[in-house]
Task: structure prediction
Amino acid sequence: MSGFEYASAPESKAIANIATSYGLFIGGKFVEPKNGKGFNTINPATEEILSKVGYADKLDIDLAVKSARTAFTKVWSKMPAKERGKYLYRIARILQERAREFAVVETLDNGKPIRESRDTDIPLAAAHFFYHAGWADKLDYAGLGSKPKPVGVVGQIIPWNFPLLMLAWKIAPALAAGNTVVLKPAETTPLTALLFAQVCQQAGLPDGVVNIVTGDGITGAALVNHSDINKIAFTGSTEVGKAIARSISNTKKSATLELGGKAANLVFDDAAIDEAIEGIVNGIFFNQGHVCCAGSRLLVQENVADEVLEKLKKRMSLIRVGDPMDKNTDLGAINSAEQLKRIHDISNTGDAEGANRWSPECKLPSKGYWYPPTIFTGVSQSHRIARDEIFGPVLSVLTFRTPAEGIEKANNTMYGLSAGVWSDKGSKILWAAKQLKAGVIWSNTFNKFDPASPFGGYKESGWGREGGRHGLAGYLTSQVKESK
Ligand code: NAI
Ligand code: MG
Result:
């Protein structure tokens, strides 16, 4: 299609020093799980086993929570705030120094293109530590009460789509606010969290301030239900988010929940179409569409729909699918066999319900988990592909006639995490942003992130915010101004 072929440009794996097995990181040391159990993590692009990691159960969770409690009461909550800040700066700098190593390990374990782990995940993770390092000694001036206090020991559970970045979103604000943590990475992507544990050792972080326990949903539930946890911070599916909310409903535990999304990307007829095409592609095909705020519902004004679709198909034909370690790859591997099955299952309902599927011609590798970039046209609001989170490279295209109809369709979802607005008119963008029920709204761009900007949702997209001053608030108590 393009006329030019790209020569392969593979990133070297040599820098990734992945051990054959890892224990749990508890109290500043790697220890074997009490039950002696472990499980493999694989490279989803090749199905090769990368390493075996420990499987934590209740006993290990108890040890990790105890170590976090001791570190909280004896060390971290007593330390002058500016000293805490120094550790965060140190961690941020080490992440920068070891960025290439982290990017390679992330891509091998997750399947995302090296271009994205190198240029987005790792730099943003370091940025979150730099940003929150700055807050550590300024909490009294954050407008969250005169002397806000840490909540205590925080249990943190993260998903597999942005493993190190989600770790940074969770750990950086928690530590800056004076909390200690027990973090559980997702079962398919534990390696960068374990590498991060080594960074904590390298930074001389006091033992027990960060504990990392690997395992599955049962491990996660044990953390949620531990009686000495003060707060749960979770990112993942709405289903598990609801289960967590139920489990803690009778306790004093607080929670922030970052859940699913089905974001509308609204293209008005006065938009700069070529730019909008780039935004649509970035919105749904970035990170294989494994993005909670992905622009997975394209809403195009009817009079420009033909032009948008024609240009979109042309652009999609240029997406390079394949080896995530190749620096030219745009779309990497689907993270797991389970996720690939889920993408197939939901997408197949699109065919069954009468929508029209289109994918560019592309050769998928024979090993590993792959799904081609796909769009569905002729989608109506009642179709499952317009309602459920597919969490893959699949875009549902709907049309609207008037701006008011566009907004109504955009808001017709149980989610409300993000939205995009494409228009030439500032007044229309502001008008639309005001009507859209979504936590983050991008105008004439998509998927832009910054540690200073709060992120979170309406409705079933979750509770609370992460990032910025709003995110810090979730890790502090006594937010009400004291009257003395
Ligand atoms: P999940 O919600 O099951 O997993 C996320 C994390 O929660 C993992 O660390 C997992 O081990 C843990 N977990 C699972 N069950 C738990 C429980 N009962 N208590 C505590 N922790 C538990 O997500 P999964 O199964 O990997 O993906 C399913 C779907 O969820 C995806 O297709 C996608 O639609 C959505 N999802 C959304 C994410 C987001 O960023 N909003 C991230 C991951 C998945
Ligand atoms: Mg893996």
